[in-house]
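ERR on first pass: missing label on line 2. Operator R.T. fixed the label and resubmitted. Corrected input:
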Amino acid sequence: MLSELKKALTAINLPVDWIGIRAVRETNTTRYVRDAMPQANGKSFTMGAMVEVMVNGCLGYAATNSLEQRSLLAAAEKAYNQAVAASQWWIYPFQEKSERPKVVGEYISPYSQPFNNLSPGEINDVLVKTCKALKVSDKVVQTVAEATSTEKESWFISSNGSEVYQKFLLFSNYHGAIAQDGAIVQQRTNNGWQAQCYQGGIELFLQPDQWQSVELIGQQAVELLTAEECPSICTNLVLAPDQMMLQIHESIGHPLELDRILGDERNYAGGSFVKKSDFGNLIYGSPLMNITFDPTVSGEFASYGYDDTGNVATKQYLIKEGILQRGLGSLESQARIGVDGVACARASSWNRPPIDRMANINLEPGKASFDEIISGIEHGVYMEANRSWSIDDQRYKFQFGCEYAKLIENGKLTKTLRNPNYRATTPEFWKSLTKVGNTSNWEMYGTRSCGKGEPNQAIWVGHGSPICLFADVEVFGGGS
Amino acid sequence: MKSEELSDLENSFNKLIKRVADKKADSEEFTLKLSSERSQFTRFNQAKVRQTGIVTDGWVELTLMSNQRTAFSRIPFTGNSEYDIGLAIAALEEMRKEIPQLPEDPYLVLPTGNNTSREIHQGNLLAEEAVATSILKELDSLDFTGIYAGGAVIKGYADSCGQKHLFTTDTFSLDYSIFTPEGQAVKGTFAGSHWDKLAYTAKIKEVKQQLDLLSSTKPKTLPKGQYKTYFAPAAVAELLSLLSWGGVSESDLQQGNSALAPLSRGEKILSPNFSLKENFQTGLVPRFNELGQMAAFELPLIDAGKLVNTLVNSRTAKEYKKTANGANHYESLRAPEIIPGNLASSDILKILDKGLYISNLHYLNWSDRPTGRITGMTRYACFWVEDGEIVAPIENLRFDDSLYNFWGKNLLDFTNFQEFIPEVGSYESRQLGGSMVPGMLVEDFTYTL
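pass 2 clean. output:
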């Protein structure tokens, strides 16, 4: 691949300041079983390249799914024409040295067993068995089990000598049950919809406590049918790491994206309540809050060595002891806004341009054990696993719902609660962060489908967090 | 798309179909699904170009069925027949090895029938190099943000029975928001198959007038509570979109995943003023599905508040002993239409009297799907109304209410006019079609934050 791309790059003869080619080859394999019956077994293979040119500070791109040299040359010409046509109206004069610096390197996901160590038949056997194990009662009306693996390679070369190769192995493991008793319907899954997402090989498929955990999910779906409704009250809220993932993603990750603050996303995903002047000053949350952009965590879903413009990925504090430090902004956004950012120019594939994206956004562990947190609460609610999410276009007013909750009374988890929800505003919520769990309860999850951008892009992100206690939060139940 | 280019792609697809058919064993069946596009995406912020480019993309999905088992393989479709056929044959061979390992699929549906169709909708779009100037020179100093997406989209289908469909269309959409210095905005879309400069100029002139309205008064902060609310068609389309996600699907209904289950069971009712149907008469989206079956031109789903049909594909029909109605794999809405009511445009503010005028909604999700409860946010050009007059724009509010309220007992009326709200999504590829919806007036809509 690399030599073909280099040949094309050499053959392009256009009056440009800079030119880059980013090629992607990706195979996504889905195996999905419902109620112990196969629903989908297949592969999606995509391959193509985006040619990007810089002409007098303007960028234009053209992407093609044909890697023949003539197609790449034609793409380069289209990209050039796009850049020239836009030059009169271009937003900011980018520079090769600062926005497309030379970079050379390689990144490969950690793994111990390749995906083909298990045959399609063996994977289906496990998924069928999972569905059967989930059906603990006649009240379970639907069971699902899904394994998704992705092998993705990318190559980035440029006229100023960049040469980056990255290979990602991504794996997601999802299963869940829906239980029904008349009009009462409840769902329970393994940490929320497709949240078990990691980098690695097929070794991620079967966990040591797999069957115990699967059966518990089925049992809890049934248990929720007769559980009390979550009360409507302002109280202490303890969130498990599988809900913290969503909380971090929506109320920290997105509002800190510099392209949102610059207004690029206002027509689609929205803006942000965070302003340029807030960096270095804003008290985002309590002093217990330490948030990092960390694409270096081994096995976390959105680890990588370089972003899609070749910027080297390093760990950075976004929020330290509650104070906002820097934004989630690419080299382009950093130049436009004048705020420090990170290596986060990412594209969902060869056919979309890089934009500001989260990678792994993590809440660093604190000091409290699970027992220490729960035992110190007189009254509260403990919630696990996201099932509903909505937040405004400034990332300020949110409402999230979870699958499963427990009442906390006098320092103990007591009754199971169904339809647990909570709502708040972002600054108020993070300032109410009272306790942060330690490394013993720090867990990481991810998602494949963070949507953003025009044209739209769905990309994979990772989030790690311990359990956390928030004081005086409005919680409530379901029903009309 | 130029007719020669379209002809080349169609020929390539035909060659691919023939080669796969030639390779097919007697015991095998197959379907081939095609999606291809030539798209320009030009993105704007502050009435400047932020990103601009061209995407040439395409894929075919080959599904092989044999011995009551099935697998699929999606591969690139480039138009280079030799290359594309090579990929398809390799995929076929790989699936042949895999299929015997898979469990039997008791509800596998094999392609049957003899449907064919060929629809070519040619348009008159802006030249690629003319997009930025044509759009931006009309804007003066407006804070304009959004995206122009335009070009050809091709959808195709073929199978081992000899069914074949091709649908191509040249379309564009300009999806935009224009902001006041205070952060209030007017959001709109300008879409079609023929760029009409005069219509675009008129649209921008109309937006400028709306912006003046937004700029004239400070936004009003409202306490949470219940308010009489008028939803403009774009906001109604957002609410309607949730019915494609755990709503009108028969399989969702059967598997505990549908918000319409209480309606189906007769436990809850909707207003007799609420009627919803699939309407393919406009020809904006293909009628064929993943098995080459053609949906009826019209299919009523909710008629005067009663659930008269769900969307049923052949697989669901086989599993639950229902009658298939040409629904797609996801049993989602493809050409939805809400039937208009009696509320005249000139009466909207007068009958609203005191309450909220909501132009757009944002980030909707089920907060409790089994009871039909939806949460989301107001967004852009939303106003407080008193004595039938617009008083001020509002600070955004979060809502959380059940469709059994706002399409049920609290629905006062739909407008007597509809608007076409185009589908402008582009996650996997540029989407087609949209929804035809009226505005609606609702009593006691619940705002929570």
